Amino acid sequence: MQTTLIHGDDSYRHSAAVAPEISVSTTFIHPTPKGEIVPGAPSDYDPFEPGRHVYSRYGQGVSTRVEKLLGPICGGHAVTYASGLAAAYAAAVHYKPKRIAIRGGYHGFHMSIKVYQAANSAVEVIDIDDEYKPGDLVWIETPLNPTGEVRNIKHYADRAHAVGAHLVVDSTFAPPPLSNPFDQGADCVMHSGTKYFGGHSDLLCGVLVVKTKEEWFELWNDRTFLGNMMGSLESWLLLRSLRTLPIRVARQSKTATELAAWLQKIEQTPKGKEFDGVAGGLIEKVWHSSLQKEASEPWFKEQMKGGSACFAINLTDPKHAELLPSTLEYFVSATSLGGVESLMEHRIISDAGADPKLCRLSIGLEDLEDLKADFRQAFKKIARPAKL
């Protein structure tokens, strides 16, 4: 995977520059006509393997290179979009379901479904454990936002395919090399590339990956006329970021799994006692994929090749949950996830339906011991009795 991400787009390098160049042009010069002109479609333009470019809404050099890297590492053919929600909406447009099966997860997509329903009022939302019908769109987010818990993709793939439904997996929390949902039967894989693919908190991107070239062309055609493609600068930033994806994700996953285990020890420490410099009774619950009861089951081990780098904790006191993100020094109090810097968010700020005691953690590339030390100092401050 690492070699593919560094050299997989070498054949699309059209200059002597080692680092990809930024192209901000929206349009490209037509060649001198040779032979008969085909109205409405340049006969020498193939969007899947472009020898030249026509208009940046169709595609341009850097976005092509990005898609040629994302496809192989995700196990299919990739189409990029302006944001994760743009990609999610494009999936709904592509499958044209009469019913969407979904439960929990990212609140943003639930709002996108409402937008889709506004133009398709007959579309019904059902639960993922309801009975499916032919043509249903089953939307499985795994690991789950915000807790990082893992759902069994194969279970839902088998149920969906048995009746002719389609399964889309939002794998944003488990990018390659942590998971490949196609191995468990997904029909389409979605990523908010803003997160781990981008990895530096400086771009918006969405990705859909499908199994066949025919599906890719369908998605490309929809994107061309919905107009929800990535911008040129964002494509360039993403291409830069993908070079280091496996290294970043492996480190973030390892640190998050170890930090979650450490925080769970604090959760298990009774009030009045102390663990590793932190008072017991402050943490009510730690949510992380490695702490699930299913983590030892064969399906889980086959699906996940490491722990999620984004997870959540419930604090005992809602006021502590409100104060903790801004009391930490290395964690940035902000929404989003997947960047090189660790983030913590009092989740109710972004998601009105979240538990007011829940804080979501996105683990970056800092040293584990520094993050532990940061928690020690922050917990001491928020647990200190207020002065009268």
Write a concise synopsis of the structure shown.
By secondary structure, this protein is α/β, with parallel strands linked by helices. It contains eleven helices and 14 strands.
Characterise the protein shown here:
The protein is of the alpha/beta class and 388 residues long. The protein folds into two domains: 1-242, 3-Layer(aba) Sandwich (Aspartate Aminotransferase, domain 2); 245-383, Aspartate Aminotransferase, domain 1. It is built from eleven helices and 14 strands. It has helices spanning 2-7, 61-74, 84-95, 107-119, 153-163, 213-226, 232-242, 245-267, 298-303, 318-327, 368-383; strands spanning 77-81, 99-101, 124-126, 137-141, 166-170, 188-192, 206-210, 274-275, 278-279, 283-287, 310-315, 332-333, 343-346, 358-362. The strands form three sheets. A seven-stranded mixed beta sheet has the order 1-7-6-5-4-2-3. A five-stranded mixed beta sheet has the order 10-11-14-13-12, with helices on one face. α3 (84-95) packs across α4 and α10 crosses α11. The radius of gyration is 23 Å and the shape is globular. The mean pLDDT is 95.
